[in-house]
Design a protein that fits this description.
By secondary structure, the chain is an alpha/beta fold. Helices cover about 30% and strands about 15% of the residues. It has one domain: Alpha/Beta hydrolase fold, catalytic domain (Rossmann fold). It contains 11 helices and 11 strands. An 8-stranded mixed sheet has the order 2-3-5-4-8-9-10-11, sandwiched between helices. Strand 10, helix 9 and strand 11 form a beta-alpha-beta unit.
């Protein structure tokens, strides 16, 4: 049994007991509505929180940002570590100041102990040899806590978003419909599932925000999985055209593992001549792997993904 020293910290944000389902976040800007239980054929049923910006629905021209790890986004009093992304404050301020076009945020809670299995890019994982897959399933994040509580099922998680959640949102909220108006966003493992979702469903999303992307995947040095990510992304870039990709990372705590790996991703994008105006990869010296760090720079990817539209433009 191999216990991963960094991944236990990574996973400690995910337990269902950290936030009771009845604890509706308190927001400083805009409002929160809760879909109490969205039944799914693909994943465990769960509630969904929908953040509506100040003035909604007056603009009547809202895009949608689907964010993972939804419990951590709005209210530090309800999170396990008393930190938050400050999504309501930052997005609300940017919208009010006219620095971004209006959008709503759909916050999807993670699957607790199944978070790794739900967020892990499935096709790269299944491209590994049977022995490497078996080795990954033997990893632990604590003495009695398997890293993967079940087999990887991120395809089903993405099917839930595309086939069940999106139709619900677009039927019940005043938002722009279609893939050019939908975005994915998250950090760490949520960063992995964001770029992966974009590449698996390039016609369903216009961009992916991947902050502090956990490129090592299952090991603290990245030797087991990172090559599979590189191969998959190298092939997947050909399926994209106008989609935007945002990556960033720091160099403290868990983020210390990322600079050398993110550099290889950047080199891959350059090699494939992905248009320079459609991707960003930023480094923040001294930034750690936590919600405070992500909140501090969240305005940057939001302004990149949601620039104010020019007249006579549908982008």
């Amino acid at each position: 049994m191999k216990i991963l020293p960094f991944v236990y910290c990574l996973m400690s944000v995910t337990t269902y007991s950290a936030v009771a389902a009845q604890d509706l976040p308190t927001v400083s800007k805009g409002t929160i509505e809760r879909i109490s239980s969205l039944a799914s054929e693909y994943i465990s049923d769960r509630y969904i929180d929908v953040w509506l910006p100040p003035g909604y629905p007056q603009a009547r021209d809202y895009d949608v940002l689907y964010m993972h790890d939804g419990r951590m986004l709005f209210d530090a009093t309800t999170t396990w570590n008393k930190q938050e992304w400050q999504v309501d404050e930052i997005a609300g301020m940017l919208i009010e100041q006219g620095k971004v076009r209006p959008f709503i945020v759909v916050a999807i809670p993670n699957a607790g102990v199944n978070r790794h299995s739900e967020f892990y890019p499935q096709r790269p994982f299944e491209s590994l040899t049977a022995q490497k897959q078996s080795d990954a399933y033997k990893l632990f994040r604590g003495p009695d806590l398997p890293l993967f509580a079940t087999k990887v099922y991120s395809q089903k998680y993405l099917q839930f978003i595309v086939e069940e959640l999106i139709p619900y949102i677009e039927s019940n909220y005043i938002v722009n419909k279609g893939g050019k108006h939908r975005y994915l966003g998250g950090s760490s493992m949520g960063g992995l599932i964001s770029w992966y979702g974009l590449m698996e469903y390039p016609n369903e999303f216009a961009g992916a925000i991947s902050m502090s992307t956990h490129w090592p995947g299952v090991t603290d040095d990245g030797t087991l999985m990172f090559g599979a990510f590189l191969s998959y992304i190298g092939k997947g870039l050909a399926t994209l055209d106008s989609q935007k990709l945002y990556f960033d990372h720091g160099n403290k705590t868990l983020d210390a593992l990322y600079p050398v790996l993110q550099h290889q991703i950047d080199e891959l994008l350059i090699k494939h001549q992905y248009p320079k105006n459609q991707w960003r990869s930023l480094f923040f010296s001294g930034a750690s792997h936590n919600e405070k760090s992500w909140a501090h720079r969240l305005d940057i990817p939001l302004k990149f993904m949601f620039p104010v539209r020019k007249k006579n433009s549908n982008r």
